[in-house]
Design a protein that fits this description.
The complex is a heterodimer.
Chain A: H1 8-22, H2 28-53, E1 59-62, E2 73-76, H3 78-98, H4 109-125, H5 129-148, H6 153-184, H7 189-197, H8 203-221, H9 229-236, H10 239-245, H11 248-264, H12 277-294, H13 298-314, H14 322-350, H15 369-383, H16 389-401, H17 407-434, H18 450-468, H19 470-484, H20 487-495
Antiparallel strand pairs in A: 1-2
Helix pairs in contact in A: 1-2, 1-4, 2-3, 2-4, 3-4, 3-10, 3-18, 4-5, 5-6, 6-8, 6-9, 7-11, 7-20, 8-11, 9-13, 10-14, 12-13, 12-17, 13-14, 14-15, 14-16, 14-18, 14-19, 15-17, 15-18
Chain B: H1 2-20, H2 25-45, H3 67-97
Helix pairs in contact in B: 1-2, 2-3
Classes of the chains: A mainly alpha, B mainly alpha.
């Protein structure tokens, strides 16, 4: 059992998806119980995997027992295990929220939701680049269906743009993999790292392949020239789906971080490949802050917030340094919860304001002090105000950036963007809650549900809780970053001790 | 053989990218299909071109790299499924709006309106023929 721990976070949702598809005709009760049970089991499996990975060794799971460069492996270090735990937690909360009516608008919601989890977990766990492509596609296919779930013209249109863009991205991904295989003769990440360091010719081709790979990940992570799809798609998605999507951009960021630190940074052929990443990431942050100022409704504002946090994280991979990576991992966790909380809040506020919905304009009075409190907490976390986790994350990042040459630019942009975000959140929050138009009848307050409220409370409470218990998380992030920045152990664990002596045929 | 394959991949990619940038969903679907053909050929070629060599490793025998063939098979299956979904989505957008233009002509206020409220057809959107057949944005 112990040796099978790495694949459990993938297998559990996959089995649940199969059961859910087989039981399509059953009622929502059946589907919800299977989905929620799988989500809880997924948390258990991911937590166990995190405990195992925290012992410090890289767990390697060879699928079909084919050894590393020839077969596909799952490689679990602290970073991968921590990301599976984050995914499992966020997915369970989103599923809890969706299990009150939203899931009943289409027959296959729960199956697609589980497949989405399969794709996310697989993308974090795999140690093979082609397998990463496959899990990306699983994740994207499920996200296409989830994005369109609930219907409406806006969702079809936003979905179409999202699907076309990602299909073009997949084509680029395959071209990058073809180039990589053509020059190096391998697609296993650890083996790619080894081959790249010993590369003697075809420098330009290898560099091109690496650049294409990073460009594809940057498309998923919404780096500026490739980020225009995000606000449209995320603002159009249903609340629980959008909340889960807050994690989708992070997949691209973690993928960039991993390939950069393990394979590209130490190799002469790809040295300095990511020099352009930090300026673009800073532009992304500014773009997102301006978008947040211009947003017309709360869910659009939430989408811009997600884009902004992606920009902050994308500034990190180009600078090698375990301290910076540790700060980024802490920021990643807290910003995921904060972004997700905003999408759920937007839905909750919107349905109480009748025709005004979540648009920033005068509406019927909102007699919901706890919603206002929730908004305040989430907004303070997102803007990075002192007592909450957003502040801690930003502080750690700023502190870690001080040693890098980009310090002045990063400090300026982060602080300016934080100020703009604060203005936007304060102005729009006061409009939502205080600007009243009494002639409009308040919407009938929809029947409240404990599940939805619990999901919202859990996500909003993550802001203060992550500030209270910041130390264990920051320590884990530091250990994960230290492990990531010592790629020798990762490569040795995946390829085994005989890595250098694997016989290679000379390719024509 | 190499030159022929390179020309074929280049032509397919060029046509695919051109069609991908068109304004109608059908052209976009065709463009993506051509692009995926080009990509599949490219992946196939990454294992080097050999005529008459089986992808089976036997002692001393003449063989070609089997891995790219497995990769191409996976890529074909995934691309096929994705294209089918894209066609469905395009048809749904067409049924809901009466227009197959990819440009998201949805006003900010309509973004993501829920079922029922946002379903009404857009009366103000011009008939598709007036936007020019090219559909450049």
């Amino acid at each position: 059992m112990l040796q099978h721990a790495p694949i459990l976070p993938i297998l559990i949702p996959f089995a649940a998806a199969l059961v859910l598809m087989a039981g399509t005709g059953r009622g929502p009760g059946f589907q919800r119980s299977i989905g929620l049970a799988a989500a809880l089991a997924g948390i258990g499996a991911a937590a166990w995997l995190t405990l195992l990975a925290d012992r410090g060794e890289v767990l390697v799971y060879a699928l079909g027992n084919w050894p590393a460069p020839f077969g596909i492996v799952l490689a679990v270090d602290r970073l991968a295990a921590g990301m599976t735990l984050l995914t499992a937690l966020l997915a369970a909360v989103c599923l809890l929220h969706a299990s009150h009516g939203f899931d009943a608008r289409g027959r296959h919601f729960h199956a697609f939701f589980q497949l989405q989890i399969v794709g996310l977990q697989g993308a974090f766990l795999t140690g093979d680049l082609f397998n990463l492509f496959v899990f990306f596609e699983v994740m994207l296919l499920a996200s296409y269906a989830l994005l369109a779930h609930g219907g409406g013209l806006a969702r079809s249109r936003a979905g179409l743009a999202y699907v076309v863009l990602n299909l073009a991205g997949s084509a680029l991904f395959l071209i990058a993999l073809g180039l990589l295989y053509g020059t190096l003769g391998t697609l296993n990440l650890a083996d790619v790292a080894l081959r790249l360091q010993g590369l003697e010719h075809d420098f330009a081709l290898a560099r091109l392949a690496a650049a294409l790979l990073v460009a594809v990940f940057a498309l998923k992570a919404a780096l500026l020239p490739l980020s225009f799809w995000l606000p449209l798609a995320y603002a159009a998605a249903g609340a629980p789906v959008a909340a889960l999507f807050a994690l989708l951009t992070k997949v691209g960021i973690v993928a960039i971080l991993r390939v950069q630190v393990v394979a590209f940074a130490p190799a002469p052929a790809t040295a300095g490949l990511l020099d352009w990443l930090t300026p673009l990431a800073l532009l992304t942050i500014l773009f997102a802050a301006l978008g947040a100022l211009a947003a017309g409704r709360l869910r659009a504002l939430a989408a811009w917030l997600v884009l902004g946090s992606a920009g902050v994280l994308l500034a990190v991979p180009a600078h090698a340094g375990a301290g910076l990576t540790a700060a980024a991992l802490f920021y990643l966790v807290q910003s995921t919860f904060a972004g997700a909380a905003f999408f759920l809040l937007a839905e909750r506020i919107g349905e109480r304001r009748g025709a005004a919905a979540d648009r920033f304009r005068a509406g019927p009075p909102l007699a919901a002090p706890w919603l206002a409190l929730g908004f305040f907490l989430a907004a303070a976390t997102a803007a990075g105000l002192p007592p909450f986790s957003g502040f801690l994350g930003k502080l750690m990042l700023l502190e870690a950036f001080r040693a890098t040459p980009a310090a002045a630019a990063v400090w300026g942009v982060l602080l300016t963007a934080g100020f703009l975000l604060m203005i936007s959140l304060a102005r729009n929050g006061s409009r939502l809650f205080w600007e009243r138009k009494t002639d409009q009848a308040a919407a009938d307050v929809p029947a409240s549900s404990r599940r939805r409220s619990a999901a919202l409370v859990l996500l909003v409470a993550a802001g203060p809780l992550l500030a209270l218990f910041a130390q264990p998380l920051a320590d884990y992030a530091a250990r994960a970053a230290a492990q990531l920045h010592a790629p020798g152990a990762y490569i040795a664990a995946v390829l085994g001790p005989q890595a250098k002596s694997i016989e290679r045929q000379r390719r024509p | 053989m190499e030159a022929l394959l390179a020309i074929a991949i280049g032509t397919l990619t060029a046509c695919g990218v051109f069609l991908l940038l068109r304004g109608r969903t059908f052209a976009v679907v065709l463009g993506l299909t051509l692009l995926s053909y080009a990509v599949n050929l490219f992946l196939f070629a990454s294992g080097r071109l050999m005529a008459g060599a089986p992808p089976l490793i036997r002692a001393g025998a003449f063989y070609t790299d089997p891995l790219p063939q497995a990769l191409v098979l996976t890529a074909i299956v995934i691309g096929f499924g994705m294209t089918a979904y894209l066609v469905l989505l395009a048809l749904r957008a067409l049924a809901e709006s009466g227009d197959d233009h990819v440009d998201a002509k949805v006003r900010e206020g309509r973004l993501g309106q829920e079922h029922g409220a946002g379903e009404a057809r857009e009366p103000s959107s011009p008939p598709s023929s007036e936007r020019g057949a090219g559909g450049w944005p």
